[in-house]
Amino acid sequence: MTPSPDRSLHLSGASNFRDLGGYRTDDGRVVRWRRLFRSDHLAALTVDDAQVLASLGVSRALDFRGGSERAAAAYQLPGVVQHPLPIEPTVVQGMQSILAAGEALTAQRTVELMCLTYRNFVRHNAPRFAELFAQLLRSDEPLVFHCTAGKDRTGYAAALILLALGVPRGEVMHDYLLTNEHYRMPAARDPRVAQEVREVLWRVQGPFLDAALQTVDEEFGGLDAYLARQLGVGSAAREQLRRAYLQAPAA
């Protein structure tokens, strides 16, 4: 048996840069390694990190960050074409509204904000995720998709890809929760934000992704209908994705 590559690329400038390969699908095939990568933002990559991406053949970066996020942490990587797919962050604004109203910002309120954010990925951001799939279908050359922390917008995108390929939900959740093992939280900036709130804000929890997938099921008729009607990924496109990104397991 050929050893599996490391899922984490262990880059110096992006702690949450990971490979989606190796997951087994319902029909026994396996997601190809070194084709699909998910990450936190790429503005802090070192020269050595950039060389790693070049050695992997990464030629596209799909960036879910909002406009101000991209402006604050812009990047250029040799040979990598950037495709902005902006989804503006809403959790920070929600937190600021709570604080401005003189209300307590608790961990539970932050969990509620996070779950609403994930529901809104489904309700309001279908065009961005449709373009993600359009890029996957356009070419199977290696690509990376990312946001700022690589955990929420990116986490939902990764879940959609794996589910479309036929990876069981349990494995999809496993990949989603790996962020908690890899992502390095930024330093605290606002003394009004307690550490338990920061733990909610900068980590992931199963109920966040569940909130999105429940919205898919309850408001859009389930994954198959959501992919086909909202994201333009019908049965033919899903089969094309599987031909491109799946392989038979190694003997």
Automatic annotation (TrEMBL):
Superkingdom of origin organism: Bacteria
Keyword Hydrolase recorded: yes
GO molecular function: protein tyrosine phosphatase activity
SUPFAM superfamilies: (Phosphotyrosine protein) phosphatases II
Domain annotation Tyrosine specific protein phosphatases: ranges: 127-167
Pfam family, one: Y_phosphatase3
Broad class of enzyme this protein falls into: hydrolase
Keywords assigned: Hydrolase
Catalytic activity, EC: 3.1.3.48
Signal peptide: none
Family: Belongs to the protein-tyrosine phosphatase family.
Protein name from the UniProt record: Tyrosine-protein phosphatase
